[in-house]
Amino acid sequence: MRDSRARDITYLRLSVTDLCSLRCRYCMPAEGVPKRDHRDICSVEELVEITRAAVDCGVRKVRLTGGEPLVRRGILDICRGVSAIPGVEELCLTTNGVALPQLAGPLREAGVDRLNVSLDTLRPDRFAYMTRGGRLEDVLRGLEAGAAAGFTGTKLNVVLMKGFNDGEIPAFADLARRYPIEVRFIELMPIGEGKNAEFLSAEAVLAACPGLRPAEGSGVARRYRFPGGRGAVGLIEPMSHRFCGDCDRIRVTADGKLKPCLHSDQELPLRGLRGEALRRAIREGIAAKPEGHRMDQTGRSEAGRNMHQIGG
Length: 312
Ligand code: SAM
Ligand code: SF4
Hints:
Elements: E1 11-15, H1 44-56, E2 61-65, H2 75-83, E3 90-95, H3 100-109, E4 114-118, H4 124-130, H5 136-148, E5 155-160, H6 169-178, E6 182-187, H7 203-208, E7 213-214, E8 222-225, E9 232-236, E10 249-252, E11 257-259, E12 268-269, H8 275-287, H9 295-298
Parallel strand pairs: 1-2, 1-10, 2-3, 3-4, 4-5, 5-6, 6-9
Antiparallel strand pairs: 7-8, 8-9, 10-11, 11-12
Helix pairs in contact: 1-2, 1-8, 3-5
This protein binds S-adenosylmethionine and iron/sulfur cluster.
């Protein structure tokens, strides 16, 4: 379905939990998040029902996110339910990778097509610092497990932070030379805990890697390759280059609120709705999708929630 600005909305980002196994400084509060009563969070059946209704409204691609989707009880049932919906052409999942050694194979069998794995540093000490106690080794094993389970086209999400990982840009980019993966450098957004780290423009990637050459685009990313390299480098620039005009996505939070735009506090409750009432609410949300964010002028997001409560 097209929104009021003629953007074709085909992509649903579905958050399945706001809990996480890590506590990245730019995403989660230091004290973590209180565990909510499970009745406050959509059940597996509700999530599948909402996705089915979104597909009826034109969605073709679904990404499961969180919090950390792999800590959600019933995650495999959610994957099986969503991937079985006629009209879902691609089911992706964004994860911190920690639980992939146990879950990569089952996720593949449950119908997940592609993985995005988030990793902001290749140094164990920095990883432990930024995630407040995580082990880099777990994510690296997770990446290997994903490849062993047959996942291809895996993307690595790297949030750029000045004074933290800017010196590692060449090492990350080099992974795209050596492996058939896309390394996506993402600009830090001023959402919630995002103030705990310092912004760095994605242009820094091009300055640090003069060998990169422009490649064919993909969605909201500007893409580059090293001549002869096996993978690609993507730049996701919500701050430097607004891509709101090409936005094709809506989001649903784990507590069942439709967010037409990540950076707006506009939310439509979907829980309790069924059938045509649910489809009508989703259509209303799509129709009301804001034109874009104003972070370049205001320096802050109006999301009204932290990233782990929305889903990146
Ligand atoms: N736990 C999973 C993970 O880390 O991949 C999925 C949820 S996480 C919120 C999704 C993505 O959002 C991650 O790549 C994370 O680095 C990114 N993210 C979180 N806070 C952000 C911020 N303030 N600005 C930019 N990206 C952010
Ligand atoms: Fe958890 Fe992902 Fe947020 Fe890190 S970025 S705290 S892994 S939800």
